[in-house]
Amino acid sequence: MRTVRPSLRLACAAACAALLAAGCAGNDTTSASSTGSTGPIVIGTSISLSGTTVLTSIKDGYQLAVDKVNAAGGVKVDGVKRKIKLVVLDNRSDTNTMVQQVRSLVLSDHAVALLGSCCQQNIDMEGQADALKTPLMMGALPVELLPAGKGYAWDSFQSLADGADKFYELAATASTNKKILMVSSNDAQGKATEQLWGGLGKKAGFTVASSKAVPNGTTDFSDVVQSGKSTGAQILIADMAPQDCFAMWKQMKALAYRPKLAIGLQCAQTPGWSALGSLGDGTLVQLNWTESAGLPDTQMIVAKYAKKYPALNDLGSVALGYHEAELLVDAISRSGDATPAAINKALATTDMTSALGPVKFTANKSTTPSFIGQWESGKIQQVWPAKGAVPLKSLSGLG
Amino acid sequence: MSLDVLAAGILAGGLYALIGLGISLVFGVLGLMNLAHGELVIGGAYLASLLVVDAGWDPLAALPLAMAGMALIAYPLQRYLLTPLLRGSKSAPLVATFGLSLLAQALFQAAFGTHPKALPASYADTGLSVLGVRVQTVYVIAFGLTVVLCAGTHLILTRTRAGSALRAASADPDTAAVLGIDVDRVYAMTFAGAAALAAAGGVLTGVAQSFTPSSGLPLLLTGFAVMALAGIGSVGGVLAAGVALGVLQSVSVSLFGGGWRDVVVYLAFFLVLAVRPQGLFRKAYAG
Amino acid sequence: MRTSDTALTVRGLGKHFGGVTALDGVDLTVRRAEAVAVIGPNGAGKSTLLKLIAGVHRRDSGSIHLGERRLDRLPPHRITRLGVALAHQVPRPFHGLTVRDNVRIGAMAAGPPMRGPELDELLALCRLDTKAARPADSLRVLDLKRLEVARALATRPQVLMLDEVAAGLVGRELDEAIDLIRRVHQRGTTVILVEHIERVVRELVDRVLVLNWGRPIAEGTPAQIALDEQVRAVYLGDSSPAGTGPAVHSPDVSQDMRSAGQDTASTAVPADTDDVLVLDGVTSGYGDMLALRDFSLRVRPGQIVTVLGANGAGKSTLCGTLMGTVGTRTGRITAFGRDITRLPVHERARLGIAYCQEGRRVFGDLTVAENLQLGAPLSLAKGELHTRMDRVHAVFPVLAERAGQKAGTMSGGQQQMLAVGRALMANPSVLICDEISLGLAPVAIDALYQALTEINAQGVAILLVEQNVKRALGICDHAVVLSRGRVSYRGGPAGLLDEADLDAAYFGTPTPDAAVSSTTPATHPGSPARTTGDPS
User: Fold this and answer.
1) Residue A24 burial (CB < 10 Å; 0-12/13-18/19+)?
2) B259 in A contact zone (CB under 8 Å)
3) C231 and C265 part of one domain
4) In this structure, are A279 and A192 located in the same domain?
5) Nearest CA of chain C to the CA of B79: how many Å?
6) CB–CB contact B178 C374 (8 Å)
7) Are residue C518 and residue C490 in the same domain, yes or no?
8) C175 and C266 together in one domain
9) Domain stop point among C236, C268, C285
């Protein structure tokens, strides 16, 4: 090293002299492009790790996949094994921050591909990926909700319709009067959910006896409860923020409304649901992953993260992040030169089995399986599909 | 619309009043719009959760301790941070309370995580039938407690010498100081009292509903709406305004559907501000 | 009367604010290029008159003409464009803008924008040319006043109205301000001054209008006005004998004079733990304005000391400084042998200093009894509290009768009794009273002064700040006359009972002596009791 240094310094000085003041400030690690060299391949994510949404579990899934590849010596690109460097930036649940961070990931960190955040941020990130012509691999956004873009955003996650169908398949096995009380938040997503679930419910032979839209932050659900009681609806579908669900479940119990099935979309998956104690027992939730479904790498994910994330839903998020990163790494390895354009091309021809099952993209989307779980004594267990499931129990919490 | 809905509105209004009372007190006496009031409420709920969730106490037993705890935290904040700022510009303490609000949210998140929490209690999800009207037990308890706390606050303000010192410091701090009243201390005590009231509201919110580090903001807005309806500086008005807000919400939901709740409430709110800018129920305890 | 020679004509002008009559039947005619002063005690309606002329307020009756043009129905900006400008007592520059921009913006209010040379000339006239590029925030008080005048002049007024522009200035600053107004006047601008400082009036104007309670009571040359009995009565307060009050004390005049001589010779007051209050070379004020300069005073146990002086003399600042509501810049304040210069207000109160502020300041929404209780420490036992209340009720029986009534609903005199009673609840060793007779009927004043004597008889020292000279001199042991922040008399009340002496200390009447002193700022060598440190 000692003998090399002077020459390096000389070279640097010469380069500086040549470039005069212009490029002098740049140091050699950042000025070197990650493409066409043997250095690490940089991928990046601007993800919400603080603020209203905290997605630490997804981030851990990303890191898990990257660590696994690097432990095996890296990903083979053009015959050379190269490590992958994952740059994680916390956008603090703020969209403007996310936009800035995505730009800086691509422009100054030279990330050749991006991993997503969640929900609305994923939709907003699509435009950035298209503008920067950098592939963006995301989950945590139902495939129906990804808007048509310029082809740089890739979404592999559950489908809303599939999720609803799974619920109705399960509901058909229970003995109910097939009358539904639908309660959804009165924002765009709530309205879309109401229409989709209502339509699919009718197809499956159910009737929507009453449908109520409630604003976020509602604490008094007496109107909803009353309409449930008066219509005699035995199936409750609630699509709301967690706090609203908590208040409604308490109020339903107190005011003696007793449906036979109740599913909490967007709300009942939270580990905090166990704080409801026995009141939460029997509540159904949607899942994108369960440890009992026999999906690939389940053992590894449970072994590494079951302690940090005792809640099934969080563990499912680790699996989701792992799945996204797996798909991206696979595409990088097939890209030939690890340039954004080549990776984007490679993603289109993905044909593999990830932690969430088999994946193939059609129009930048691929649907992963949906599961229905049920709360029982502070834990969620898979009750549908039947493979790997425990039998459906009664809604004892509200009974 | 049935009596159930009306009763639920009245009872929910009690909790609104309890949250609004602290905001109103601080604004009336200190002239400070406390943007961290929602976090004082949530802070009370988290304090109680240490005793309720972790040590198995009944929330009502934890309530006085949560009130005292929040008062102890709030006192030095006012005495050594906000009061010195009040001496300077009008906007500095406002900005400071906003900063405190963000800081508190970050602290809650670090200490308790982001998942919703609730305070389990036997009365959280049981109901009562009164004259054929079915109501949630916890809201009956909350309403009763609110009435007691409002009455207590009112009596302290109007029947004790400390209360008249507080009203004096609110009306004319310079003259109060000339009379030997330590105005800084009165301010800090007021803030601590408001924090204790907030904590009581937080514990009841935790039992009846749930809370997360970020659920302070809607509570602040509710409290602010109550204060504006009530007018500044009237304890009875705060209670009446809370109930009015609760009834308005449940009646509008039952008549127009949940989607219109906020529209109706804020329309009424602006109407009141336009027609009676001093609030619906202004009856001065100060100023 | 409205000839081409007339700049401004005011006829039968009246204005009410709610139930309060601010102006009533005021006539004033100002000739072109004349300088006129409007004087009168606080609340006389002086500023209201200027604001009515400028169109800031609407008149209720009467008329205002500028030349032939009727003004009183025009909006303020039209009046400004016609050539009437108003400069305020407290300058309000646009912060963040330079001096030049401030003046230029002033010019935009009227007619074509001011060009460079004209602007430079105006800045030079106001001695602001060297500071034109500085931000207005950086100016000291004299330059702020200059800027205020420059901004008014930028509208190219025919008539310039100055509302106490010299307030808060002393010494050389005052000379400069007078000089500026004189230069403006000599340019041919008609000037209307509202002023408390007698010297400004005397040096600048030809004619004086005196207002009291909104009515004109005298008009004439400064010299005529100075001799007017009615004007003197207005300034010295009511001169009716204090029938129930005590006779004039017979203090040891010679000793007082000696101590006064000491005070002026050196500001060091020897510390004496027996003394109730000692101020030693105290300077204080608000912002840039020093209202009290190098002031020394001693109040002994059981003594009644009165501080007299015209409006703006620094009397209320003295009270505030003693109590801590106004910060002390230099000097030392001692109470009962303890240095209290940096003690917070409420702790001074707890030491036994009670303070009845000007304007009574009772808590209007609290009951009379609640107001009284606030005067006592919170920790005071109930029994002792009631004993003290009984004692106050004995002095002011009306406070017992009205215990449950809201204080705001009582009459002015009763409120003043409540304020004094409230102060007594602290069981003070010294009571500071600021203008307790202001605005009260003579019968109420009688009752209050009777009470003060009783309070004093119980051993409470009293520092009495008054405009009502006769009343104050009637009960005090020692008197101090303040003139623009400095002491102009110090000694026994007997030294002021002679009207000429009083005039000299108070108004600085242009006696031959004073006329000399106005050009040679020096202490009177002949009179040790009169310390005209500042020529007046």
Assistant:
1) middle
2) yes
3) no
4) yes
5) 15
6) no
7) yes
8) no
9) C236
Mutate to test the interface with C, among B175, B181, B189, B232 (most CBs of C within 10 A): B175
pLDDT digits (tens, 9 = 90+) for B28-62: 898 899 999 999 999 999 999 999 988 999 999 99
Question: Both A74 and A146 in a single domain?
Answer: yes
C531 within 8 A of C489, measured Cβ to Cβ: yes
For residues A379 and A274, membership in a common domain is answered with: yes
DSSP letters spanning C318-380: HHHHHHTSS-EEEEEEEETTEE-TT--HHHHHHHTEEEE-TT----TTSBHHHHHHHHS-TTS
| DSSP-derived secondary structure letter, B81 | I
* Position C237 pLDDT exceeds 70: no
CATH number at residue A242: 3.40.50.2300
Residue C344 lies in a domain: yes
Task: Record the tokens describing residue C498, joined without a space.
Answer: 């002679």
User: Residues A149, A246: one domain?
Assistant: no
pTM above 0.80, yes or no: no
> B128-179 pLDDT, tens per residue?
888 888 888 999 999 999 999 999 999 999 889 899 999 999 989 989 999 9
How far is Cα A108 from Cα A100, in angstroms, rounded to an integer?
A: 11
Percent of chain C with pLDDT over 90: 32
Domain-embedded: residue B283: no
Residue recorded with tokens 């310094």: A9
Residues in A closer than 8 angstroms to B218, CB to CB, are 217
Helices C442-457 and C382-395 cross at an angle (nearest 10°) of 130
Residue C424 maps to a domain = no
The B residues from 202 to 221 touching A (CB cutoff 8 Å) are 208-212, 214-215, 218
**Among A69, A224, C129, A288, CA closest to B259:** A224
Which among B161, B181, B284 is the nearest to C346, CB-wise?
A: B181
Structural domain containing residue B28: 3-275
The pLDDT value given to residue C76: 86
Please tell me whether the peptide bond between A385 and the residue prior to it is cis, using omega within 30 degrees of 0.
Answer: yes
Per the domain annotation, does C461 fall within a domain?
Answer: no
Domain ranges, residue C16: 6-236
Chains that touch C (3 or more CB pairs under 8 A): B
User: What CATH number did the domain enclosing B209 receive?
Assistant: 1.10.3470
pLDDT for residue A113 is more than 90: yes
Q: Is residue B137 part of a domain?
A: yes
Provide the domain limits for residue A276.
161-287+372-398
Q: Do C366 and B164 touch (CB under 8 A)?
A: yes
Nearest to residue C321, comparing CAs of C363, C290, C359? C290
Cβ pair B124:A250 closer than 8 A: yes
Considering the domain boundaries, does residue C229 fall inside one? yes
* Contact status of B127 with chain A (Cβ, < 8 Å): yes
Beta carbons of A277 and B120 less than 8 Å apart: yes
Q: Based on the structure, what is the number of domains in chain B?
A: 1
Chain B residue with minimum CA distance to C325: B174
Other CB atoms within 10 Å distance of the CB of residue C98: 18
Which of B158, B172, B179 to mutate against chain C (most C CBs within 10 Å)? B179
Residues B284, C365: C-beta atoms closer than 8 Å: yes
Top-ranked range on mean pLDDT: pick from A314-328, B240-254, C131-145: A314-328
| Domain-embedded: residue B284 | no
Interchain CB distance below 8 Å, B177 and C325? yes
Residue C526 has pLDDT above 90, yes or no: no
Contact yes or no for A249 and B125 at CB 8 A: yes
Q: How far is CA A167 from CA A262, B11, B167, in A?
A: 10, 36, 60
Tokens of C46: 């002086």
* Biggest CA-to-CA distance, chain A: 88
Chain C residues lying within 8 Å of B180, measured CB to CB: 346-347, 349-350, 375, 377, 426
Q: Are residues A338 and A349 in the same domain?
A: yes
Task: Give the end of a domain, one of C202, C236, C270.
Answer: C236
Question: Does C304 lie in the same domain as C218?
Answer: no
- CB-CB neighbors (< 8 A) of B12 in chain A: 219-220
